[in-house]
Design goal:
By secondary structure, the chain is mainly α. Helices cover 72% and strands 0% of the residues. Helix 1 packs antiparallel against helix 2 and helix 4 crosses helix 6. 21% of the residues are buried.
């Protein structure tokens, strides 16, 4: 049993830097990337590593899902605050390099990060996100357009 634990530790430790960078890009600004990665690792441990064919893809998809859940929860809280007329502070971006990406939904950020920074093909991205290659390409295109328009508006 010790060998399995050592193998799991080794595989998770090897995946950590890449998954953490991914979490920093796709995660909400008010959620620490390490928290998302830790939650993803917990899901791996609960599910059992033997049931996971591609650990990297599973962890990325899990981080993306957790990010989307956080964003939905944040949106619900914002609506509740507005209904109660509570003024909330704007969350500033933690990472200057990806501050502009934080304007986009987590799945669009994921597509742009994987395509532009990590050099993934749209087919590989589609496999990770569970969509068609055309949908991944369209998300990337729409994301670039939104960023371009937002940056032009700012001058």
């Amino acid at each position: 049993m010790g060998d399995v634990d050592d193998d799991l530790r080794t595989r998770l430790a090897a995946a950590y830097p890449t998954i953490r960078r991914f979490a920093a890009v796709v995660g909400p600004a008010d959620v620490e990337p390490d928290d998302l990665v830790q939650d993803a690792f917990v899901r791996v441990l609960r599910r059992g590593i033997d049931d996971i064919a591609n650990l990297d893809a599973y962890l990325r998809r899990t981080v993306l899902n957790l990010s989307s859940n956080e964003r939905r929860s944040w949106s619900r809280r914002q609506r509740a605050y507005r209904q109660e007329r509570v003024v909330t502070e704007t969350v500033s971006a933690t990472f200057v390099d990806v501050a502009d990406l934080l304007r986009l939904a987590p799945d669009v950020r994921a597509v742009l990060w994987l395509a532009e920074v990590e050099g993934w093909t749209h087919a590989e991205i589609a496999g990770l996100l569970g969509c068609s290659e055309e949908a991944a390409r369209a998300r990337a295109s729409r994301g670039r357009r939104r960023l371009r328009l937002a940056l032009v508006e700012e001058g």
